[in-house]
Design goal:
Strand order of the largest sheet: 1-2-7-4
Number of helices: 12
Order of helices and strands: HEHHEEHEHEEEHEEHEHHHHH
Pathway: tRNA modification; tRNA-queuosine biosynthesis
Distance between the termini: 67 Å
Largest sheet: 4 strands, antiparallel
CATH topology of the largest domain: NADH Oxidase
Pfam family, one: Fer4_16
Shape: globular
Number of domains: 2
Protein name: Epoxyqueuosine reductase
Radius of gyration: 20 Å
CATH architecture of the largest domain: 3-Layer(aba) Sandwich
GO molecular function: epoxyqueuosine reductase activity
Structural class: alpha+beta
Catalytic activity: epoxyqueuosine(34) in tRNA + AH2 = queuosine(34) in tRNA + A + H2O
Length: about 300
């Protein structure tokens, strides 16, 4: 006799795949005991730089039951964004995740639909959808639910598909069957640590956010410190170096999400065109893209810094 828990779990996982998610893992909602001291040390070492929002809601970050009343399960989901084509070689580079439409909107829609399907099929289920814009430790939950392990570059890594995917979750008040964490497969490899252009991976599994190129090109609102000049390896928005060199990313396969396809102009732009970009072109090329986070002036600042 199949239990309701088993039936509901199977339904949620098959629905997630139908909506285009790469994989789905489920954990029991509760306090993240192992993450608490790690997060505290990271914040105390000022590795969040000017990302002061990382200091907010410390308790909620570690306990989803404080975010969702009567939370029982954290449903973690991965969505592939690995592109079939990348920028031409003579270009200022942007992170692959920002090639297409802003993932927050794309994933939020899918999560809403998933929650709607759950309510339709199962009945009265309450919950909330999260896409890295709330105090949820996405990677910790994904690892806990067996979707991968946290690598030395602090990204979630998966044997079959590497790490070029987004992580999102539904936190719901429904008891389900829970998955088990997987094991670490980084071994003695230090490719990401050795390749980081700004030595931001200060120890295996520890990234100093305030040294990361993504931080300087996206989060930092003031001028980029002059001492960083020459160390950005042409990254103008974000940085994929630690993922590009990761051996597990040999297994990345192109995504099938049309909304993540880039504006064709983006892939062909040369350095000269980037340097001469106008606000009009910026608006057209990055119409619904995550690159809009830096705004036109922020992108110009980054490009001028790289010149």
């Amino acid at each position: 006799m199949i239990s309701n828990k088993e039936k509901y779990t199977k339904f949620i996982k098959s629905e997630a795949l139908r909506l285009g998610f790469m994989s789905c893992g489920i954990s029991k909602a509760g306090f993240l005991e192992q993450e608490a001291p790690r997060l505290e040390n990271w914040l105390n070492s000022n590795m969040n730089g000017q990302m002061s929002y990382m200091e907010n809601h410390f308790d909620k970050r570690l306990d989803p039951t404080l975010l969702v009343d009567d939370a029982k399960s954290v449903v973690s989901l991965l969505l592939n964004y690995y592109p079939s084509e990348t920028q031409n070689l003579d270009a200022y580079k942007i992170s692959k995740y920002a090639y297409g439409q802003d993932y927050h909107f794309v994933i939020k829609e899918k999560l809403k639909e998933l929650l709607f399907s759950i309510q339709n099929e199962i009945g009265e289920v309450s919950g909330r959808a999260f896409v890295d814009s709330a105090p949820v430790l996405d990677k910790a939950w994904a690892a806990k639910s067996g979707l991968g392990w946290i690598g030395k570059n602090s990204n979630l890594l998966t044997k079959q598909v590497g790490s070029f995917y987004f992580i999102a979750e539904l936190i719901i008040d429904l008891e389900l069957e829970y998955d088990n964490a997987t094991t670490d497969h980084c071994g003695s490899c230090t490719a990401c640590i050795d390749a980081c252009p700004t030595q931001a991976i200060v120890a295996p599994y520890v990234v100093d956010g305030s040294k990361c190129i993504s931080y300087f090109t996206i989060e930092l609102k003031e001028n980029i410190p002059q001492e960083m000049k020459g160390s950005f390896d042409d990254w103008a928005f974000g940085c994929d170096t630690c993922q590009d060199v990761c051996p597990w990313n040999k297994f990345s396969k192109p995504h099938k999400e049309p909304l993540f396809n880039p504006n064709t102009e983006l892939l062909s732009m040369s350095k000269k065109e980037w340097e001469e970009i106008t606000e009009q072109t910026f608006r057209e090329v990055f119409k619904n893209s995550a690159v809009k986070r830096t705004k036109f002036q922020g992108l110009k600042r980054n490009i001028n810094f790289l010149k």
